[in-house]
Design a protein that fits this description.
This protein is about 40% helix and about 20% strand. The chain has about 325 residues and is α+β, with helices and mostly antiparallel strands. It has one domain: 2-Layer Sandwich (Ribosomal Protein S8, Chain: A, domain 1), CATH 3.30.1370.60. The structure holds NADPH dihydro-nicotinamide-adenine-dinucleotide phosphate and pyrrole-2-carboxylate.
Length: about 325
């Protein structure tokens, strides 16, 4: 694979200029460029610049409104709702997350229901936003049918990611962020692009046969991680991100979508909990003693550590050269 080196400033400018050239206003372009840059900074490669062509397709087809102004409301005590007005998710989060953190810090628990949004990014930015403010964060979103529920060979679930972050004052949070499929679709697509195989158990070809060819899996179905257990979590994500927000289940998102290659309209559920208010004084030390036990075990690493280590490096990032050419041709 040929790559070209870009600084984080250059990555931000490329993403922002591409969004501006395709109908975004300053605020929407900045929100998107920020999320793309943070993904590249942390090494979330399947959800950084790789997603920009899809974002542009959604803007050009008119599916996404690059000038949307998301509206925040408070329909019930600890419930925050954002109507994204058809924006990409980061724009809606930019107004929803501060409101969520504010309520959870006062009440101990709060839920943010994001609707009328298009999510194509990683979810750790949402949960780490909360952890950076002393709150536990849980976020999930659905997608379009990509994954066969356990027992079936037919796709119904999205790749349905879920992220969890736990605050560690003075340290990077514990944070996992994972598709509930055996592999994220973006990583399957990147493996296909780079001519690699994927591990057995990742998915089935269009005839329902197991395969390690990512190109065939992209045309067939992905499997949930961990069999029926991952399938149950994917089911929970459908219910929280669509049932609880009132937005589209993955199958409804596909029915409503114009299939331009960009993210479909859907919802996201973000939950915030305050350990200071729920556990009370001393929660930090109590948890750190547990974390010491965990990290004292040979072979264990804390989820999020790889990204947080990458984040310390402010240097150049190697970007796929063909992807760069594609993105530059979009302005
Ligand atoms: P990975 O399988 O790469 O990683 C999942 C989590 O496990 C990460 O938090 C990772 O931490 C952690 N982890 C990995 N290896 C270890 C290890 N050996 N020990 C402890 N923890 C470990 O993620 P996925 O491929 O499942 O998902 C990739 C991204 O795709 C996610 O950011 C997700 O949000 C995004 N996505 C978005 C969708 C959307 O609709 N918007 C749909 C599906 C996925 P670390 O990062 O530090 O390696
Ligand atoms: O990687 O599975 C994925 C994905 C779907 C939507 C955004 N990312």
């Amino acid at each position: 694979m040929t790559t070209k080196d870009l600084s984080l400033t250059e990555i931000y400018a490329l993403a922002r200029d591409t969004m501006l050239a395709n109908g975004c206003d300053d605020a929407n372009a900045a929100a998107l460029a920020d999320i793309v840059t943070r993904a590249e900074r942390d090494g979330s490669h399947s959800h950084g610049l790789f997603r920009v062509p899809g974002y542009v397709k959604a803007l050009r087809s008119g599916k996404v409104d690059g000038t949307a102004k998301p509206m925040v409301s408070h329909p019930a005590g600890a419930v925050v709702r954002v109507d994204g007005g058809g924006c990409f998710a980061p724009m809606a989060q930019s107004v929803g997350l501060p409101a969520l953190a504010d309520v959870a810090s006062k009440t101990g628990v709060a839920a943010l229901s994001l609707t009328n949004i298009h999510h194509f990014a990683a979810l750790w930015p949402e949960t780490e936003y909360l952890a950076d403010r002393g709150l536990v964060g849980i976020a999930c979103t659905a997608y379009m049918p990509t994954v066969a529920p356990a027992g079936s060979k037919e796709k119904l679930f999205g790749t349905n990611p879920i992220s969890f972050a736990w605050p560690r004052p003075g340290k990077a949070p514990v944070c996992y962020d994972m598709a509930t499929s055996a592999m994220a679709l973006g990583d399957v697509q990147i493996a296909a692009r780079d001519g690699k195989t994927v591990p057995p158990g990742t998915g089935l070809d269009p005839d329902g046969n197991p395969t390690t060819d990512p190109g065939l899996i992209a045309k067939g179905v992905l499997l949930p991680f961990g069999g029926y257990k991952g399938s149950a979590i994917a089911l929970m994500v459908e219910l929280l991100a669509a049932g609880l927000t009132g937005e589209a289940f993955s199958y409804e998102a596909a029915e409503n979508d114009n299939h331009d290659g960009g993210p479909p309209r859907g919802g996201e559920m973000v939950i915030a909990l305050s350990p200071a208010l729920i556990a009370g004084e001393g929660w930090e030390d109590h948890v750190e003693r547990f974390m010491d036990k965990l990290t004292g075990l040979e072979g264990v690493r804390v989820p999020g550590d790889r990204r947080h280590r990458n984040r310390q490096n402010e240097g150049l990032r190697a970007i796929n050269a063909d992807l760069l050419d594609t993105i530059r041709s979009l302005s």
